[in-house]
Write a structure and sequence with these properties.
CATH architecture of the largest domain: 3-Layer(bba) Sandwich
Oligomer: single chain
Bound molecules: nicotinamide-adenine-dinucleotide
Radius of gyration: 22 Å
Strand content: 25-35%
Largest sheet: 6 strands, mixed
CATH superfamily of the largest domain: FAD/NAD(P)-binding domain
Number of helices: 12
Length: 390
């Protein structure tokens, strides 16, 4: 019997494993993941701010996969593609006939000095919890330190992760002020963005709504300000130094480092795949999610999102089934359902492409994030149902 190995239990990997079972793949299916749980990466910012606990956004993998899938908890260190083997940190290498590489994303530093050491990334449960602890400890310390930098928070970048973090932060701030008895007027929250626009991928009016919302809650936004260095208590741009003892580093992501270490022809650890999502080097390897770059109709790769990862997983599973049956694979096609950026639990902005094109802002947008996730990630059923096999 052929063996299909799926790497990573993020949206892409879990969904691919599930779909292979649903499509009755005549093969052994093995899923390999570092942790024994899956986390909803679209909600990590809430854990980082402290409005949600890890339990609210994590699911034990064994509870949500079919017993037909063998699960190995281990860390992939390398893919030995010439021998078709996955090298693991703690257990023996696993060989494969088909591979679904869905190893996911990591924080990108762009080589900026101090970013790795002093920037608090939000890329997994562990880093989100570190960011939360740092924020709370630093605010709590003000009572004894009287260092005003303990009351300053800098969020680097103004993409989705930064803006969602800021929306959640200003929502929680009144509680933090009360809890640590903080002087409200001395708290400063900065957002520093290299580009000329906040949320550049959204419609101008929606981005403006987000900017005004955050400004009205005390956030100072600086655009066209490229960060060149981080120190323990400052962010340096070309012409200015911004001081803070909490620095959130959300300027973008790259694919897993395993891509470079396994010798892929990658850019920022993302591999440009064939139209059927297979690797240019191996027609039996499918690369999906944040380690892949899939050219869209404009020729430029689609942005990486949970939604596209799910669509890629379905397409890759169907193509593996086709190959097992000796049939031709199909090209991947994708239509985004839209984008929602939350601004805390009850506000947000959204651009939707479901039954027409909709632009929504304010309280109406908040539940839409759930709905877009539901449509793409949960497929109108609950999370456990979507990830487990029929
Ligand atoms: P991003 O790339 O979308 O945004 C990062 C921002 O940081 C950009 O605006 C960039 O100009 C800025 N930046 C980069 N270098 C800088 C520098 N040196 N100084 C100042 N600013 C700098 O990254 P992200 O927000 O981490 O998101 C990662 C991916 O996940 C994206 O594809 C995003 O679309 C997706 N995502 C989607 C959602 C959602 O749909 N609600 C939420 C979170 C993330």
């Amino acid at each position: 019997m052929k063996r299909i190995v799926v790497l990573g239990a993020g949206y892409a990997g879990l969904r691919a494993a599930k779909e292979l079972v649903n499509l009755k793949a005549e093969a052994e299916i093995i899923l390999i993941n570092k942790n024994d749980y899956h986390y909803e990466s679209t909600q990590l910012h809430e854990v980082a701010v402290g409005t949600k606990n890890p339990n609210d956004i994590t699911f034990k993998i064994r509870d949500i996969i079919s017993p037909k899938i063998k699960f190995i908890q281990d860390e992939v260190t390398k893919i030995d593609r010439s021998h078709k083997k996955v090298v693991l940190k703690n257990s023996e290498a696993v060989s494969y006939d088909f591979l679904v590489n869905a190893l996911g994303f990591e924080s990108e530093t762009f080589g900026i000095k101090g970013a790795e050491e002093f920037g608090l990334a939000i890329v997994d449960v562990k880093s989100a919890l570190i960011a939360k602890k740092h924020l709370e400890d630093t605010l709590a310390r003000y009572a004894s330190s009287q260092d005003e930098n303990d009351l300053h928070i800098i969020v680097c970048g103004a993409g989705f992760t930064s803006i969602e973090y800021l929306g959640e932060l200003v929502h929680r701030l009144p509680e933090l002020i009360k809890r640590f008895d903080l002087p409200k007027d001395k708290i400063k929250i900065y957002c520093i963005e290299a580009g000329s626009k906040v949320l550049p991928m959204l419609d101008d009016h929606l981005a403006e709504y987000a900017v005004n919302y955050l400004k009205s809650h005390g956030v100072e936004l600086y655009t066209a300000t490229k960060i060149t260095e981080l120190t323990k208590n400052s962010v340096i741009s070309d012409d200015k130094v911004y001081e803070a003892n909490t620095i959130i580093w959300t300027v973008g992501v790259k694919g897993s480092h395993v891509m470079a270490e396994s010798g892929y022809d990658q850019k920022r650890n993302r591999l440009l795949v064939n139209t059927d999502l297979s690797s240019p080097d191996d027609p039996n390897e499918f690369v999906i999610g944040d380690v892949s770059a899939v050219p869209g109709p404009s020729g430029r790769p689609y942005p990486t999102t949970g939604q596209i990862s799910i669509a890629q997983a379905d397409a890759a599973a169907e193509n593996i089934i086709a190959k097992l049956k000796g049939q031709a694979t199909k090209s991947f096609s994708y239509k985004s359902l839209g984008t929602v950026c939350s601004l805390g639990p009850s506000n947000g902005v959204a651009e939707l492409s479901m039954m027409g094109h909709w632009k929504v802002k304010g309280h109406l947008a908040a539940p839409l994030k759930r709905i877009v996730n539901d449509r793409s990630v949960l497929e109108l059923s609950n999370f456990t149902t979507m990830l487990s096999s029929k």
